[in-house]
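Exercise 7.
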Amino acid sequence: MRSRYFLLLKFRYKMIHTFNYKDKYYIYDSGSGSLHECDKLTCEYVKAKYEKSCQMPVISKEKAEEIEKDLNGLKEQGLLFKEEVNVSPIKSSNIKALCLHICHDCNLRCRYCFADEGAYHSEREFMSEQTAKKAIDFLIANSGNRNVLEVDFFGGEPLMCLQTIKNVVAYARGKAEKSGKKFLFTTTTNALLLDDDAIDFFNREMENVVLSLDGRKEVHDAIRKTKNGKGSFDAVIGNIKKFVKSRGDKSYYVRGTFTAKNTDFSNDVIFLAESGFDSISMEPVVTDIDDLAIKESHLPEICNEYENLCEKYLEKYENGKGFNFFHFNIDLDGGVCLQKKVSACGAGNEYFSVVPNGDIYPCHQFAGDKDFLMGNVYEGKLNDGIRNNFASASLFTREDCGDCFAKFICSGGCAANNYHFEGDINKPYKITCEMMKKRIECGMHVLARKKELK
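Solution. The predicted structure, written as tokens, is:
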């Protein structure tokens, strides 16, 4: 066997996963986080004997002994069949991040918007500067010994309240200096109001900026429309290009969403890359709108499209025109600690969402759902029952994740999606699971190929 391994961490589960990407064959050991490249016969032998998911291939005794010798060698090094190591999920009494819904209104009317086109199924309103500052105070007061705190300005469309954002950032900087804290700010925007003033402010104050653009003009304009029903592509593409050109080496993402109407989304990702954007995310839509929703019947086509994207991505990379695609970023050299992997995003435990009136929810996708109302920044306390429910949720409470090779990479999926589609934050949304597993396999192939090309 040709062993091409990349050691991650010595953690959990004596489990392996075999897969192939076209003519490349791999064995992934989730216990050690090691990836091994092998030939087809070895892959089929391991799949049959250890995964028991196919018939044993026709193989000579000598070849079987050779394979077993290689496998045992990797096992002795701790790179295969690694025993699980128990670790507890993060249960922190300290808050690290808030998502501030600075604006429950939007200047677009995107059809797939989970936030009801910015209104969150309520009245359209802006967060007052007083409430936003109270949220900053609440975060500092409940951050404990955390020195670095995070705030994401969210909407609706945050740039409709740019002056409030500026004032709150200045307030937080001043409070941080007095309390020995440091703030990292992020803004998510549709870029319609991204003018020179906003660009200058973002480049000075924002650690990261997420810009929404779905790809090709016809794709973007079919969904992301202005209030008067017109497409928004022409109004935002120039703003985003100007911003990215000015951004230097600071972080940003151009984030697209694909739906059932553009399952050829690899073309949208490549369009964004060829538009000059080198940091890109393309997310599957999460909606119950019938003509946009991704259904189980779409999965074969979508999985094939991830392979198409993988080919195009590697071609760009090999030609010196590589870019950062979020879902192919698989880190098997270190990365996030195991405890964090087990605990997932921290929503409802370390991370919370604050809506314009100061009410607190586990994250932005629960905002407005009174079953998940956790408190208010003016009261300064949280519902311990809801918080404990989220803090206790982990890979170990998501039974469907137990035998999944991808669990330490996806961390059990999005709690909000799980709840909205399966009725339980601990029950993974199966359609997302299947897409995630395919993306991870593609990402592992990308990692192996990049190592090979160095």
